[in-house]
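Q: Could you predict the 3D structure of Ankyrin repeat protein?
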Amino acid sequence: MKSELFKLEFNNLVIRSNIFNKFQNKEVYGGHVQIIDWLINNRTDRDDLQLRNGMIGIALNKFQKHIPDWLLSNGYIEDREYEASELGFKFSLNDLYQWLSTTKIRINFTSNDFDEAARKSSLDVVKWINDHNNQGCSKSAMYNAFTRCKFETVRWLHENRTEGTHTICLFSQKSLTKESEKSQTFEMVKWYHQNRTEGFSHGFMDFVASFSLDIVKFLHQNRSEGCTNLAMFNAGLAGQLEIFKFLKENRTEGVSSDLIGSLCYYGQLEMIQYLYETGKPNEYNWSFNLMDLAIKSSNLDLVKWINQNTTHVSTTINVFDNALSRKDFEMIQYLIDSKLYSNDLESSIISQLKNQSLFIIEIVDWLMKSSILDHDKLVNLAKQSNIPIIYAFLKDYNINI
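A: Sure. Here are the predicted structure tokens for Ankyrin repeat protein:
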């Protein structure tokens, strides 16, 4: 019934290639073979095989794995060997191996495909590609698997391929979303140290300092590559206090001079407190405008701590407008209550009223009901703006113009 209604409706349209593509792809998403069949047979460019080949990737990526072989069995795509790049499917598909092992479509995988599969696919897919291509892989295959924490794939490549790998520099952030994955990285690093000779770059310790004390200690005790001053910097930005302490006590690289400013900008209160309380005179660069950076971080606790415990409370930016642009009501209240602002509040109010996309009624209402605004100045600024809606707004607060 759906296909008949679709045909009736579609016959009323002017048939253009881009219209067909839109509907054709939509039906591929839903796996509606009857409608796809009708669309292919009624389009004006039926011989455009490239468009139909592209339907294979669309179908697979939308979990409609029956569509590609349906296209082949009905003669809508050629019965030949395809390059994987022609088909456009993603190597990250969960059920890719199941499809590869059952499809009648013949696919030639290049070494680049092999490398990409090692990064994104399961070990079963890697094994399948290994058995169905004649180019092998490159050093990037094991490197990709390692950086994505695919330990089983790394070991399989080690045992079954001879290309080796590149020097390891980092892990992909996408592979470090779960604690179990972070734990596996330590086991993989130990295995790699014992079984491979390519080694790690000094940047590898810099990178892992942001999440793993175990790996940092292991590299320090068992490897000679060392690290740079980015190791302590990365540990600080990640809030890894124990890693920071270990590096400070056991390494000599030090830390970059912009550490304090960066910690304030990213709102790392615990690290700031530790450095302020334990640092030696001139050990760290405290010359940054800490309050400005803390306000930008939207970390109210950090702003309060700086205000209450240090002498670094001066501001150089329009801190009120900065907090206002973030719609940070609590920050604005604290800045005003603590007199940590130097800008013209009346001008900020008028600017808010001019730009309604930035207007936050709760904040403006709170300011208007406070006793800190100069009403005469508001009136003068409103007259200069000559915008009726501003007059009407101020009238609600008994300010007549």
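Q: Anything worth pointing out?
A: The chain is about 60% helix and 0% strand.
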